[in-house]
Recover the amino acids of this structure.
């Protein structure tokens, strides 16, 4: 009879301790460049912005005198808090329309198209290959008094003279930003639809659920993480956009980024501009925290559905 293997042979081998000691310095070396990058270009500018928000401006000169006057001015002056609220409304509308356009299109491409699915998906995201400025100026050509839309309406007899409301209005800003951010929202929703297990949909049909019931009780809940991620992307980027309002919105459609731009530029009021930037940053971080919690809840629902 052969001898039974000893316990020392049966025990799994543990990696030597010196390997961990070698790995940790290597890990730190790899982390040093991103830490330096984030510190120089993210952390230090935010800290500087926060400190500058407490200074004052006296006859065009920044005075290092600690004060909350800039925050009081922001929350009491209708120009500043009104513009901020208007920015939130525009961002909400852009997010709503982006989801409204993206979800049916992503659903159609994923579930209804059997051949050349990647081709249709590529056609949808082609606008991302075009420069942001080109797309914004294209809408200026379309919506202008001598633009394509006015000429088309004149040709079919709906209007008798060019309409000025199309350009330099909040509607033009919402339309352009929706066009710019819809492909990003669609990519997020399409990815979430791709991760829905086919066996879950088949099980729903086998249990007697129709298309609408499967859509509302299975597809929508399982795709919510992608919807939330896309909505967050569109909302946050719209809040920080200033080129589209400047090119298409005019003075009546200024957003909070345009105010910050003017304060740091022509007005030379860096402390007040820093204050508005800090308030915007806090609101954005709050929105990100809220959406992060929503994504966690929807992800837990998705895991529970897959585990059944």
């Amino acid at each position: 009879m052969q001898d039974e293997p000893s316990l020392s042979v049966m025990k799994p081998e543990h990696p030597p301790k010196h390997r961990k000691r070698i790995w940790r310095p290597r890990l730190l070396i790899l982390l040093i460049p991103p830490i330096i990058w984030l510190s120089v270009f993210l952390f230090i500018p935010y800290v500087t912005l926060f400190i500058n928000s407490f200074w004052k401006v006296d006859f065009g000169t920044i005075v290092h005198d600690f004060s909350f006057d800039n925050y009081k001015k922001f929350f009491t002056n209708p120009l500043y808090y009104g513009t901020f609220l208007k920015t939130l409304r525009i961002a909400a509308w852009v997010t709503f329309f982006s989801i409204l356009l993206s979800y049916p299109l992503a659903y159609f491409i994923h579930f209804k198209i059997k051949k050349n699915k990647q081709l249709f998906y590529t056609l949808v995201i082609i606008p991302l290959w075009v420069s942001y400025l080109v797309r914004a100026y294209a809408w200026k050509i379309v919506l202008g008094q001598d633009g394509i839309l006015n000429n088309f309406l004149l040709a079919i007899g709906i209007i008798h003279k060019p309409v000025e409301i199309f350009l330099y209005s909040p509607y033009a800003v919402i339309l352009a930003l929706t066009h710019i951010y819809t492909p990003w929202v669609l990519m997020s929703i399409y990815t979430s639809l791709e991760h829905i297990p086919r066996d879950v949909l088949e099980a729903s049909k086998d249990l007697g659920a129709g298309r609408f019931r499967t859509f509302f009780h299975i597809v929508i809940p399982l795709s919510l993480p992608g919807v939330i991620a896309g909505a967050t992307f569109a909302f946050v980027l719209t809040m920080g956009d200033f080129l589209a309002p400047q090119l298409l919105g005019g003075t009546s459609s200024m957003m909070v980024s345009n105010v910050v731009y003017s304060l740091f530029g022509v007005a030379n009021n860096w402390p007040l501009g820093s204050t508005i930037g800090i308030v915007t940053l806090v609101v954005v971080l709050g929105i990100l925290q809220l959406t992060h919690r929503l994504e966690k809840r929807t992800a837990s629902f998705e895991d529970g559905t897959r585990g059944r």
Observations:
- The CA atoms of residues 37 and 115 lie 44 Å apart.
- The beta strands are 56-58, 61-63.
- The chain has 13 helices and two strands.
